[in-house]
Amino acid sequence: MHIQTDRTVIEVLGSDGTELMLNYYIENREHLAPWEPTRSEEYFTLSNFSEMLHDNKKSFQDKTALKFSALNPERNEVIAVCNFTNIVFGPFQACNLGYSIAEKHQGKGLMSEVLSSTIAYVFEELNLHRIMANYIPENVKSSAVLERLGFEREGLAKSYLQIAGQWQDHILTSKLNPKHLAPNK
Ligand SMILES: CC(C)(COP(=O)(O)OP(=O)(O)OC[C@H]1O[C@@H](n2cnc3c(N)ncnc32)[C@H](O)[C@@H]1OP(=O)(O)O)[C@@H](O)C(=O)NCCC(=O)NCCS
Q: How does pLDDT run across 102-111, given as a tens digit for each residue?
């Protein structure tokens, strides 16, 4: 399975993508550090990434988590990642969204391009009702991406996630499946 966008190819990488994914996280270690949990040295190893990617294809098939990687057209570099996790069906039909893009590809509209395609896929193929995305108030770039994609602010959760070694407040936002909204809303 893959999703073609204007400038990327989006895939679910399994263990076969270990090296590409490790390169992405090593190259962007400093860029991502303020916005992710603190990583130990063991995090940046082939064995760790091989383990983390091992179940990606099964999770995709089982619809428990969609962990997408956006590759360059030559498919030899990870440009960005976006993960739709904690997928729940039943009356909630919702999931969480997390994402990042390589520092060298920031500011080109690529993250928005990748997210709009993957969000459309999630709404169309899984028929989820709500995608939730949360960010630290200082993360202005993340706030701008979400606003561009039509996420709406729903609140502020105090001390919500442990990021960069600190429990940090997060702005809560979500986007609803347009198919589920009445035409006059
Ligand atoms: C948050 C993050 C993904 C935003 O990436 P981004 O590249 O700014 O996002 P977009 O793809 O929407 O690009 C928007 C920028 O590209 C510019 N742009 C250039 N060409 C464009 C095009 N063809 N289409 C749209 N925008 C374009 C826009 O003007 C905008 O620039 P600006 O930031 O100067 O206003 C990125 O900063 C990141 O990975 N940060 C670290 C990890 C992180 O914070 N993750 C989120 C945690 S909640």
A: 999 999 999 9
* Distance (Å) from CA 112 to ligand 1 centroid: 7
**pLDDT-based confidence at 74, cuts 50/70/90?**
very high
pLDDT computed for residue 1 by the predictor:
87
Q: What are the E-state strand segments in the chain? A: 2-4, 9-11, 66-71, 78-88, 94-101, 130-135, 152-163, 166-176
pLDDT digits (tens, 9 = 90+) for 96-132: 999 999 999 999 999 999 999 999 999 999 999 999 9
Q: Which residue has the tokens 């990870």?
A: 78
Whether the full predicted model's pTM is greater than 0.90, yes or no, is yes
Which stretches of the chain are DSSP H helices?
18-27, 29-32, 46-54, 56-62, 110-121, 140-148
Pocket probe for ligand 1: among 39, 85, 108, the residue whose CB has the most ligand atoms within 8 Å is 108
Q: Which of 6, 31, 111, 113 to mutate to test the pocket of ligand 1 (most atoms within 8 A of CB)?
A: 111
User: Which domains are delineated in the chain?
Assistant: 2-133 (3.40.630.30)
65-88 burial: b if 16+ Cβ within 10 Å, else e: bbbbbbbeeeeebbbbbbbbeebe
